[in-house]
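so my prof wants the structure for this chain in the tokens format not the other one, which i didnt know existed until like an hour ago. anyway here's the sequence
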Amino acid sequence: PVEQKEFDPNALRICFVVGDELAENDRDITALETLLASGILTAGGPENIEFDSIPYEGSAREIAMDRIRTEIMAGGGPDVFIVTTQGSNSLFPIPEKAMQEGVFLPLDTYIQDMAQSEWDKLTPAVLEAGRTDEGQVLVPMMYTLPITIYKKEDVPEAPPAGTTWQEMLSDETNILRNAAVMTNDVSGGLLPDTGGSMLSVLGRFTDYETNELLFSEEDLLQCAKAMLTLKDEIDRDDTLPVYAQGMLCGNGRLTFDEQSSEKYPICKNDAMTMIPLYSKDGDVTATVQAYTGINRNTKHAEEAFFVVDYLMRVDVQQNFKLFYMLGQNYGLPIHEDVLSPEFPQQKNGFFFTDENFETFSGVRDQITNVYFDNALVRSLSGLYSTLYYDYTYEGKELPEQALKDAVHETYGALKQMLSE
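here's what i got, hopefully its the right format
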């Protein structure tokens, strides 16, 4: 049996759920915890902090997560959760379900009375994803969305807000068709989107209050089919202007002084046109990559809120390793000033030029749907990438039956996950 660590009941207990996007071993996790504790202390926060570390990998990780879940159900557990690992490898495989089940403390009164950060500067649509009928219960820290970026000189303007996926598909120039399906081979400084962004095309996805899917198996079949055949067509179109494509993140070539190259055709000083992937209803969908929240069972609510509030500070989102490391590959900070020339990330200055920051802000303001990057989202992504790599990528014809079977299996798995 694993020896159970005894926690000081007077200490603020922080559970940092970190995976390979921030660490490569347990030592890296400890180093991050030390950084966070000293930052909180310097900011005038609680001194007596203990970390409830979840090991980096293996059975020890599973055992630690099971122990913490059991403690929470029994009325105990850590005070603060800081989560950067999503899907089934995380403490909360579907954060939205944990929110509905009342695991987290509602924060509205603390935000009103105690906040030192500028909560009105946090991207509203993304913040909204952490709300239930009780108020703000989880606070997103980082998010991302699928995007295609052209040089402004090649594509002078983006389509209007509210454009639908079907309209993107019917664009005869292929400029918008190319943006209607994410590729894996042209990342250009963005995170490649191996999931094909099925979530973004389906748009409104799940009702977590009723635990129902908001699309049919037929919808999923049509979506997967269109994306896979379209992908094949676009790969053969050599008339497209240069572009970068994938999940938008802050520390790519788009925000740092690098020269253009074959691998990175669009760079910081190029004026950009950014085209989000619209859904069939004209929505722009973002996914939350990292979040924080407070255990409803906490006996240290004010100290716990200090930590959550600290993580929302503009200087922390600029310079704390969690934000800029995740920013390199995983997303964008929720504080809306970060990545502008005035508030670059990291000392060496990752930021969008004034013109590109304005373009980025225009896309950010169009976000209408936000989901946590949860086990359901991962399952959808898996459907696309499996079919893509087994068939399209290999240059093979995708048999209709194989597609139907894969969709049927995934749809069943999604319903199963929701009902558990």
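also thought this was worth mentioning. The two ends are 28 Å apart (CA to CA).
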